[in-house]
Design brief:
It is a single chain. This protein is an alpha/beta fold. The chain folds into two domains: 4-124 and 296-313, 3-Layer(aba) Sandwich (Rossmann fold); 126-295 and 324-342, 2-Layer Sandwich (Dihydrodipicolinate Reductase, domain 2), CATH 3.30.360. Helix content is 31%, strand content 24%. The chain has a nine-stranded mixed beta sheet. Strand 14 and strand 15 (282-283) form a beta hairpin. The longest helix is centred in the C-terminal third of the chain and has 20 residues, at 318-337. It is globular.
């Protein structure tokens, strides 16, 4: 079977993505790229067959033995690395969010679409079986009119400290974890066109050296903290629907991660997958169980390879990442400026 030779850049989130390609019948991990050579070489032992190791992404992107590149670095490096990959005619798969700013995201999408390479977002939540089933049910009309949704990702103490990019300008909670539930909710709703966003955001824990992963105080990181550690708000869509969104890296609340859909004929929540309906005047609710199979990373990897090898339509092109970036940046601007932000929808 023909396989796509993939390079993995960034070995934090890159590890589960690489394992997905290893499991996929049409993917082959041919190279790794990371600034920490010991970490890279230790992980290379997990990969079957010979694996090239790079510390310079420019050199990696020029390698003729690489077909595609996954970019799993801190946000600020997504666009520089992806642009170099596109210039070298490599297919690109980018972890969320697309970029550290809307301007950079637009630049990349324009270049990637003009180049003709397969360009895809690694939005792993879209490959959750429940997310896909509910998205298809909405598309088939089984929910009726989906007029409202709630999406939240709340951590008790979970500010990442292993890379300064996460807590500096262009990082932050909403770009890191809020984007996951924002994208999944919007996708399940049928990707309606957004028209306005009202939000609040800020940093209440990180600048004080609190709220970091596993409750470990990090006072030395406080002065470096220039991003948000919480954000929440409301997105209004052209079809009249609304989405309430919340994202907290740290809080005095219980850990919570949930997406809820409200439709005229049915409703649902994602964790655990539950469908709410009324039959013959009485509640008819059901919890859905899915058979074990390929995990979300493997399904994502296989789809990316199929897009390259067979030319099938991509389920999550970079343009979808750009639209989501538009919404999340609008929420952060609204929080900073204290007023509603209008979105013209031109990117959709």
């Amino acid at each position: 079977m023909e396989q796509v030779r993939v390079a993995i850049v960034g070995l934090n989130i890159g590890k589960p993505m690489a394992r997905g390609f290893v499991k996929s019948p049409c993917g082959h991990v041919a190279a790794l790229c990371d600034l920490l050579e010991p970490r890279m070489r230790d992980f290379a032992a997990e990969i079957p067959g010979p694996v090239k190791c790079y510390t310079d992404y420019l050199e990696l992107c020029r390698d003729p033995d690489i077909d595609a590149i996954f970019i799993g670095t801190p946000n600020q490096w997504h666009v520089p690395i992806a642009m170099e990959a596109v210039r070298n005619r490599k297919h690109v798969l980018v972890i969320k969010p697309l970029a550290d700013s809307l301007t950079a995201a637009e630049e990349l999408v324009t270049a990637a679409e003009a180049s003709g390479v397969v360009n895809m977002m690694a939005l792993v939540n879209r490959w959750n079986p429940a997310t896909r089933v509910f998205q298809q049910m909405v598309a088939d009309g089984e929910f009726g009119d989906v007029y409202y949704a709630r999406a939240r990702s709340i951590r008790r103490s979970g500010i990442p400290s292993w890379s300064p990019g996460f807590i500096q300008q262009g990082g932050g909670a909403f770009r890191d974890v809020g984007v996951h539930v924002l994208d999944a909710a919007w996708w399940m709703m049928g990707m309606p066109r957004q028209v306005s966003v009202t939000g609040v955001s800020g940093a209440k824990f990180g600048p004080r050296g609190q709220g970091y992963w596993e409750y470990k105080p990090q006072p030395e990181l406080g002065p470096q903290f220039t991003a948000d550690d919480y954000g929440g708000g409301f997105i209004r869509f052209e079809n009249g629907a609304g989405l309430q969104i919340e994202s907290f890296w740290a809080s005095h609340q219980a850990e919570d991660r949930q997406i809820e859909l409200f439709g005229t004929e049915a409703g649902a929540k994602l964790y655990p997958p539950t469908l709410y309906r009324t039959r013959h005047g009485a509640p008819a609710d059901s919890t859905i169980e899915f058979p074990k199979g390929a995990d979300s990373w493997e399904r994502l990897a296989t789809h990316f390879c199929d897009c390259i090898l067979d030319g099938i339509a991509c389920d999550s092109p970079l343009r979808h990442g750009l639209i989501v970036q538009d919404m999340l940046e609008a929420l952060l601007r609204s929080g900073e400026n204290g007023r509603e932000v209008t979105i013209d929808g031109r990117m959709q």
